[in-house]
Amino acid sequence: MFRSLSVYNYRVWFVGALVSNIGAWMQATAQNWVVLTELTANDAAAMGVTMALQFAPPLLLVGVTGWVADRFDRRKLIMCTQGAMLLLAVTIGILLVTGVMTLPLMFVFALALGLITAFDNPARQAFVSDLVARENASNAVALNAASFNTARLIGPAVAGLMIVVVGTGWVFLVNAVTFLGMIAALLLMRPHELVVHHRRGGPARLADGFRYVAKRPDLVVIFAMVFLLGAFGMNFPIFASTMALEFGRGADGFGLLSSFVAIGSLAGALLAARRDRARMRVVILGAGGFAVASGLSVVAPSYETYAATLVLTGFCVVTMLTTANGYVQTTTDPALRGRVLALYMAILLGGTPVGAPIVGAVAEELGPRVAIGLAAVVAFIACGVGVTWTLASGRLHRHETKRFRLTLDETRPLATVPAEPEDFSDEIAGTTPIPLPPTERPRGAGRTRPDPHPRPSA
């Protein structure tokens, strides 16, 4: 489960990412609570607009950000984006502490954060594969998700307590300090041990990621499923904050609900780390489980029972997304990984500008339970998309020896550009055939004619 931690660079990254992610979850919790309770009078639609502005840039800039992640040094690029987000967090914190923050100004900062995140996300996702050998890439992605959800377990709860005790502005200032953890980790790494592929680039290559995905129907299906859940299902800030208010809870109750989601999310990420590879069937089952969990949340009669359903919700959604991320990384041509991951992140995060305003308006007009019910319906549709493609693709068939068992063919990478040679390893040496040159005959040696009437062999 933890085999990637045997690599020095990955250990350093894991710790730095954990510290930074804790701060990021603290800031996200404080930002949503500020918009909902301080800058508006419990206006869920305003929160939806804020989320839309924050997640629109990854969708709009997907071609550029993916090319940048493939073209430039990812380690230095992440340093730049983390430093920019540090400055942004300090600015927002000061404006909140001094009491001059307004809703339009928060919209501007949400858009600025989205612009920086648009370049940060694909670089970070692709950089994980640069830290370990190819055979450990899926495990590294899953442990990265475990770090993210461990932070999700801690950050919102700490933010909720800080909001009650010292106010929202200080949460942003504390988050600014946590960015130093990631920057320090990047500085402590050993650059010569990174598994970096050759950077192909140039404006003419911007569309390579789109062409590659268009030739991979399995990736198109995964992107469609991820878009549906990202747009309508993963609006947890809207769901949790409005449900907390419905149950008569404050900021601490809202933060605690986010931590319950993280309990299931962490379990899902760790189980994903135990699997030897990322499989399409797990993505489909995760979407179906998310639909069931959301349906249970709709009928939850109390705060405690709703919190319990969030554990299952977190488990299913992270199982799906972690497996989908690992599937994309491990079955994609390495030279195009940054561009394909940028498209993946744009589909995941870019769905929010489409769905969040709709979900926020539904929660405002019809109540949060109806909004969660909408998410459940969309998740069932996403699961249906995956099941339909699996049956139509002909990859599902009966087992060769067991009568009542079905098997699903695995997907192999589709190379569209010459891939870089892999680093030498015993595994590759033991499985790669080595062509031998034909043996030369001595000069003057006579040629033997074939026997026209060969004898049958014994």
* Total helical elements: 17
Major sheet size, sense and barrel closure? 2 strands, antiparallel
Percentage of residues in strands: under 5%
Distance between the termini: 54 Å
- Shape label: globular
Helix content: over 70%
Order of helices and strands: HHHHHHHHHHHHHHHHEEH
Kindly state the number of beta strands: 2
Structural class: mainly alpha
> Could you tell me the radius of gyration in angstroms?
25 Å
Question: Would you give an account of this structure?
Answer:
- The structure is a single chain.
- The chain has 458 residues and is an all-alpha fold.
- Helices cover 71% and strands 1% of the residues.
- The protein contains 17 helices and two strands.
- The protein has a two-stranded antiparallel sheet.
- The radius of gyration is 25 Å and the shape is globular.
- The C terminus is likely disordered.
Name the features.
71% helix, 458 residues, 2 strands, 17 helices, mainly alpha, two-stranded antiparallel ribbon
Set out the fold topology.
Blueprint (H helix, E strand, L loop, with lengths): L7 H31 L5 H17 L1 H10 L2 H24 L5 H29 L5 H29 L2 H21 L19 H7 L2 H17 L2 H11 L4 H24 L5 H19 L4 H28 L6 H14 L1 H15 L1 H25 L3 E3 L7 E3 L17 H6 L27
Antiparallel strand pairs: 1-2
